[in-house]
Sequence to fold (64 residues):
Amino acid sequence: MDPFSITIPDPDHSVDEQRYIDIGGSDKGRVLVVVYTERGSNIRIISCRKATPSELRLYEEGSN
Fold:
């Protein structure tokens, strides 16, 4: 778990559930974007990918 990760609500992509975007570093040193939702006590991952240059800047600015 990355203590410097950034979590952003994602209301634009679902009206039925709350979605979140998390930008954080992996244990391999990559910055990843994970989109997920919470269903009860479970977390459902919708997508995971390498951060874009603008997402990487957002992460770097937020972790300073």
